[in-house]
Structure formats: structure tokens, C-alpha cells
Amino acid sequence: MRYALILSVLVALPAHAADDLPQGLQSARLLPGWTDTDGNRIAALELVLEPGWKTYWRSPGDTGLPPEFDWQGSNIGDVAFHWPAPEEIESAGLRTLGYHDRLVLPFTVTPAESNAPVGLSAEVTFGLCENICIPAKLTLAAPSAGNAPDPVIETAIARAPTPGTPLPACTIGEIEDGMVVTLSLPDPDALVAVEYTGDPDIWISAPQISADGTEAAADLVAPSGKPFPLDPTQIVLTSITDDGATEYQGCAAG
Q1: Strand 41-49, strand 102-111: pairing
Q2: Dihedral pair phi/psi, residue 62, rounded to 5°
Q3: Which of 114, 209, 210, 246 fits a 20 to 30 Å CA distance from 173?
Q4: How many domains, the chain?
């Protein structure tokens, strides 16, 4: 999908007035979080959406735009995100995965230099969707870390998928322009997402669920447009129910 408009605003703390923000967004900020006993900084992106508006998960589907961060702070090493379980979103007849009302997206920053504070600022690009989906770009800066854990961030971390075992069975085959993986599903009534972490340049389709709900199939296409060696350990299956989400890292190829 092509987007004709990029919205760019500067959001500082305290937040700008609502008319300074992209359409569909009431407020946006980086929650300052805290520093844990290992010296890592735990913080979060918070987006508060207008009624009826939605934003996207890390792997939203064929048409969504997940949040991306261009870090501009200080002493930032590795950044690990703790994605809360998403929900299914219907937009213009298309299925995507994301969030409504409010997104708190926690992350843990490992400092580049130990025993030194982490300063947080970033340019964040993400999608906003009502009837038409548009990308937005914000520049956000966080205050200094707090002295204690933030219950809001802790609650969001608790909503992240839990690791699942045993690994689902899968079969892998070739198609004309890539590969196809078919996975057995642990819960036929669950909302399902399939990802491939082996190469960010490989496109993966939204999963097609079998009529009886026991299998999900997804196509994977590399830039070469040809079949390629697919690593089953890099397949990620997320199963989402009303009771929470379970994430399976890898599948058992047969």
C-alpha cells in the first residue's frame, strides 16, 4: 500500500496540545520508567488514541505499519521490546493486528556503557487507522528515569505473550517465488500470527487458516523471488485468546 502523506510533529514533555498531533491521536510520550538492578533502563512508548482509531502490532499483516524507532538518545545499546498481545482489527475489509484506545509498549534498554545513565529520545514512525490508514512520525523525549518501577509499564509487560511448548509441527515447501510453511495450531479458536525472524527482507503473508482451524499456512517471499533455505527455528507462531497469548519460537519440521 502506498501512503500519500507523512505527518511529522515534535512532541515534548509535557505533551503538546491535541491540535499539534496527527489525526486520531490524543497524546504521545515516552514514559520515563526506571533503572533495574542490572543497570538496564525499562521504559515505554504510550499512545492514547481517539475513539475508533487503532495502531499496529509488530507484525500487523499485509497492510499495517508497525512502530519503528530511530534512537537519538545517549548511551543506548540493545533495545528489547515487550509487545503486549494484540487484537484483530478489520479495516476496509482487511485483517490486521494492533491496538485500540491506548498502547503502552514497554522496552528494555541495555546501556552501551555500564554504570552510566541512559538518555531516551527517538523518532518514532507508526501507523494510525480509522477508515483510512496513515503513517505518523513523532519525535519524543523522556524525562530521567524514576526511582521505582512504574505499575503502568509492569502491567503492559505482563500482557506480553508467554513462551509456549511443545513447538508446533510444521511442513515446509517451495512455491514459485519463495516458500510456504504450514503449522499445526494448538488452539483452533485462537487468533493467530506467523512471523519469520531469519531475515527482515523476507515478506510473509497473513496466515490462511484451514476450515477446521487446525492449521495455518503462510507464504514467504525473498527479494530474489525464488525458493530459499527456510530455517524452521526462525518461525514464530503467536496464538492469542481472551485469556492471553502464547508465543512459539520455532517449529518442528517434519
Answers
A1: antiparallel
A2: -70, -25
A3: 246
A4: 2
pLDDT digits (tens, 9 = 90+) for 198-239: 998 999 998 999 999 999 999 999 999 999 999 999 999 999
Residues with Cβ within 8 Å of 239's Cβ and at least 6 positions away in sequence, in order, are 164, 185, 186, 187, 190, 191, 192, 245, 246, 247, 248
- The domain that holds 40 is classified in CATH as 2.60.40.1250
- The residues, ordered by sequence, that sit 6+ positions from 26 with a Cβ below 8 Å of its Cβ are 18, 48, 49, 50
| One domain, residues 142 and 227 | no
The pLDDT, as a whole number, for residue 97 is 87
**pLDDT reported for residue 8:** 32
Q: Cis bond leading into 32, ω under 30°?
A: no
Do residues 86 and 192 touch, judged by C-beta distance below 8 A? no
Domain of 168, in residue numbers? 162-253
Asked if 112 and 134 sit in the same domain, the reply is yes
Which of 182, 178, 179, 157 shows the shortest CA–CA distance to 237? 182
Over residues 116-136, the pLDDT tens digits come to 889 999 999 999 988 888 889
At residue 10, does pLDDT exceed 60?
no
Q: Output the pTM of the full model.
A: 0.86
Tell me the pLDDT of the chain averaged across its residues: 89
Residues 76 and 20 in one domain: yes
